[in-house]
Design goal:
It is built from seven helices and 19 strands. The two termini are 28 Å apart. Helix 1 (2-8) crosses helix 3 (150-163), helix 3 packs across helix 7 (290-306) and helix 5 packs across helix 7 (290-306). It has an eight-stranded mixed β-sheet, with helices on both faces. Strands 5-4-9-6-7-8 form a six-stranded antiparallel β-sheet, with no helix packed on it. The protein is globular. The protein has two domains: 2-68 and 138-306, Zn peptidases (Aminopeptidase), CATH 3.40.630.10; 70-134, Beta Barrel (Elongation Factor Tu (Ef-tu), domain 3), CATH 2.40.30.40. By secondary structure, it is of the alpha+beta class. It has helices at residues 2-8, 18-31, 150-163, 184-195, 230-243, 258-264, 290-306; strands at 40-42, 51-55, 60-65, 70-73, 79-82, 92-97, 100-110, 116-121, 131-134, 139-140, 144-147, 169-174, 199-203, 206-207, 218-223, 247-251, 270-275, 277-279, 286-289.
């Protein structure tokens, strides 16, 4: 879990993913020589902060978003949400501005008629527009890992572990997922036009709900706010059954991912969200069971061979 711990410590709020992208590039450069196939790395102009890896003759692309939720500093010590963080009084946030490193806390102030103002507690005013993220706090037991930003550092971890044995496929490390979606459109278009890739798997983390439990294996999402094409979904479920990997089926009415952005684009790309489930969503205490993580990695490796 050392790699996962490192990933959770990198500040990468939506719109500010460059540090995560540089870490991934460094990791690939250091480790790809030991992988089954050394990938072509695509980045730079036209790709913003995204990183795309192409292995062999790809048929399917994995999408893993690099960004996280957080806060922007506004006027008079106000905090403005980036994405959808839960509001918990006293949460620790970190960042940096022109005067140096910052460690602050969230303070919730209730107003008349139920409105609420969110402020930071600090001994000076922080520069406007600074992005603040949850303070790293990685915890591990025999059964689970718990940390800020399991969503989606675990999805990134999964993609990097799949890369070790991947012969044919592509991996997209995307941006902005937590704040409206942005980059999967142009990355998907590039892979479609240059490699003919019409299939996608979304390496992301879902939620523990009434129907999705810790310890029951990786979740294959049959739907959330988006609705995968049924023929493709059925194929994935058939392959999952054949793989012998433990999985559970998710059916939700809300929530979204990079897959939803693909569905709303004009690209003929099939997608399916597959990921482990977490408790304490969008808080500093996101919790995922190790068994479900193992199932997630095993199923992705199987699907990338057989899709």
């Amino acid at each position: 879990m050392e790699l996962l711990k490192k990933l959770t410590e990198i500040r990468s709020a939506a719109s500010d993913e460059s540090a995560m992208a540089e870490f991934i590039i460094g990791y690939v450069n250091e480790n790809a020589g030991n992988w089954c196939v050394t990938p072509k790395v695509i980045r730079g102009k036209g790709f913003q902060d995204c990183v795309v890896l192409v292995f062999g003759k790809p048929r399917t692309a994995i999408y893993a978003h690099m960004d996280s939720i957080g806060f922007s500093t506004g006027y008079d010590k106000e905090l403005i949400k980036v994405g959808g963080p839960q509001l918990i009084d006293g949460m620790s946030l970190v960042g940096s501005d022109s005067q140096g490193e910052i460690e602050t806390e969230v303070m919730l102030i209730d107003y008349v008629r139920g409105s609420r103002r969110v402020e930071y507690v600090f001994d000076r005013e922080i520069d406007r527009g600074i992005l603040l993220t949850f303070k790293p706090n990685f915890r591990e037991t025999d059964e689970y890992v718990q940390s800020p930003y399991m969503d989606n550092r675990l999805g990134v971890w999964n993609a990097l572990k799949v890369a070790e044995t991947l012969m044919d496929g592509a991996i997209v490390f995307s941006t902005y997922e937590e704040h409206g979606g942005n980059s999967v459109g142009f990355c998907g278009k590039y892979l479609l036009e240059n490699y003919g890739i019409h299939q996608a798997l979304i390496s992301d983390i879902t939620w523990v709900t009434d129907g999705v439990k810790h310890g029951d294996g990786v979740a294959i999402s049959m739907r959330d706010q988006g609705l995968p094409r049924r023929t493709y979904l059925n194929k994935i479920i058939e392959l999952a059954r054949a793989s012998g990997v433990k999985y559970q089926l998710e059916v939700e009415s809300s929530g979204g991912s990079d897959g939803g952005v693909l569905q709303k684009s004009d690209l003929p790309i099939d997608w399916c969200f597959i990921g482990a489930a977490e408790d304490n969503v969008h808080t500093p205490d996101e919790k995922v069971f190790k068994y479900d993580i193992e199932c997630m990695l095993e199923l992705y490796r199987y699907l990338m061979k057989h899709l």
